Input
Amino acid sequence: MASTTDPRADRRLLVAWAAGIFALSALRDLRTLGVAALIALLLFRRGAGRSLLRAARAVLPVTAGLSLASIAFHRLATGTWPPAGPWAALALRAGLIGFATFSVLDRVDLLRALAPYPTPSRLLVVTLAQIHALRLVATESRDGLTSRLPRRPGARVLVRNAGGITAGLFTLAARNARDVGDAMRSRGF
Amino acid sequence: MHVPDGFVSPRISLPALAACAPLWAWAARRHLGHASVESLPVVGTLTALAFVIQTLVIPVPGGTSTHLVGVMLLALLFHPLLAFLCESLVLLVQALFFGAGGVTVLGVNALAMGLLGPLAGWLAWKALRRPSEKVALFAAGWLSTQVSTAAVLGALLLQHRLDPGYLPTPPAVLVTAMGVPSLAVTGVVEGLYTVFALSLVRKARLRGVDD
Output
């Protein structure tokens, strides 16, 4: 989704989002959380479906797993069903923070917002670029191992292979760090 | 192992951020302050390395899986403070770009996974490396996982104690859900990984490939 065109508006939105998610994390009453969810849906209605889906994917596995285990434990220990309110509030709070985060990040160009702060923005650029480069190598190494073995590799083989991948990635990371440093110096940083 | 957003209230998340702030400032001044053209690419690539290591998934018996952490490795190869800085950045990137963990719980997760765990493992390695380097490395990886898990668990148990209506998960469920996999699987995997990875990284260094 397109971000705003004004970097200052991006920064204001980021500050409001940071304050907002801390405020949301303080809410425990289900009704208040429901009102907050409605406000958030109205504020971020553009692209809401996509953000809701991403938030559900990020939040639901953990909250649902813990909630089901806890409800089963309570049922076994006391023979009664626990009240559903606190579980619903937990899931709604976690989901709402996720929804607000994904909605805001869809609307903000982080690198442009960070432009007045050269060290954090350069660090973010280098980190994201290196994640992309190293991830490709890690995926290729893992796929290579899988293709060489007649059966699916076991945990021990994978842990040993992860050690090998790390050594390769470490070597590549050291080279990349030197190359990035040279590139920065050649551009007058 | 992360504490997700919404699981701890500002009563815990804000003091954790306040505790992290001077440590971040110290680490940034030490590793990014002077000659940042030299150090910034190193911090950026090591952060990326830690991030990618955490995407390596290891299947475990029972049909589930665990992932590596790898911060212990950075603490052993460089310094616990640099490992803390890199892990904090990993957590920030995960929260902002991948929806894992979260920004409100950044302080709690950074203290648990970036500082306390690797520091405990680093101290264990320092104490045990003379008798046996391999045992020391395994102990460092295993202990860092246990201490990180205990710290995350401590934050969740404290939240339950402060307000059971906020986090209704009973302590028995929290301890079982986090403690058992950590003791039985994740710690062992991280310990073995630390032994394998560090010996291979050292061999690569001996061959001079990272000069």
Summary: The longest strand of chain B covers residues 57-60. Chain B has a mean pLDDT of 87.
